[in-house]
Amino acid sequence: MNSVFLLLVVVLIAIAFVFILPPLLRKHADLDVDLDQRNVKIAQHRLAELKENLRSGGLSQIQYDEQLADLEQALSDDLDIQSKVGPVSTQSRWIVYVLIIATPILAGTLYWSLGNYQAVSHSAEMAFNTDAIKLAEISKMVNGLAEKLINNPDDAQGWLMLGRSYDVLEQHTQATTAFAHAYQLLGDQAEILLLYADALGYANDRNLVGIPSELIFKALALEPDNMKALWLGGMAKAQQGDAVTAIRLWKKLEALLPAGSEYQQEIQGLLAKLESEMPSVSAQSEPTTNKSSAAITVQVSLAPELIKYAAATDTVFVYAQALSGPKMPLAIVRKQVSDLPITVSLNDTMAMMPNMKLSNFTEVKLLARVSKSGNAMSQAGDLIGAVNKVDITDKNTHHIIINDSVK
User: Fold this and answer.
1) Same domain, 259 and 225
2) Residue 234 structural domain
3) What is the pTM of this model?
């Protein structure tokens, strides 16, 4: 029999005996004397009360005599009854020894015939298999969700949940398909873009070059301070060999992370490694406007009639856009309404993607937009102003008046 099981049995029996045996082994005092003394004291106390009531007028002499007679009779009866009670026999203690011997024998016999002591030895194996059972249950639920989505392909949240579930199961190829459906239905939302990009990277041996990189920098354009986007963006740039941009993104991420946290320390280690591999990177990682190969100066103001529709804390995006093709900003600056009027310089260092920057175009469109949601994507109700065509070599200051709203 398993030694662990035997130890458990012994401990449990010992605990049981601790509760059962002491009352049986305890010596009994002479109850006659104790009870007689107690009854006499009670009678004395009651007699004192009667006398006090008689003295205070609470009882008449007749009432006093009647209650005194009752008290004497009750005391007499109590003393007579107690005198007939014999001493407790100690011969019944033999049952203690029977219990000590018979209980373990009886319990062991019953368990041997009805129980399964080997179950104790299987506990570790059962614990080991618990995770496997849970994983199988999750897989079953995920497969059920996938089947439901075949019949309901427009359930965007369902596709999103399916993608997350595949990520947990580390089935990254299936996750990319699910996130692609969610992206198609929900559009350019930072969370969707990053989940899709991350899954593509895992499915491609953690390589973020190409489509994953485009998705990541779309997310960064929407949410410039999104920590996951900064992390993945830095990783994508490092894989592309653009250490300067990787360092710039990770330095921004470092500043956003809690001081001294594990994640901040990890980022600091990566930055130190990049900077040690490229000694000149530190000097390049804080670019200035006069080093840009292309720059446009823009002055932005808000039309007086629209001031009442904008709060001081509303976000203002000032950006350049290609005249045709993708609408991703070629350079973008984020300010607040309280900063207006303002003059900014748009240049190549503000590009979201290396192949989508000002110097790659001869003419661009300039826009300034007030967004209450803080979303870089244009939404109905946003206030907007634009200069439709600007030559990239024009060094004059270009004026944008925000005087219209997005329909």
Assistant:
1) yes
2) 133-284
3) 0.41
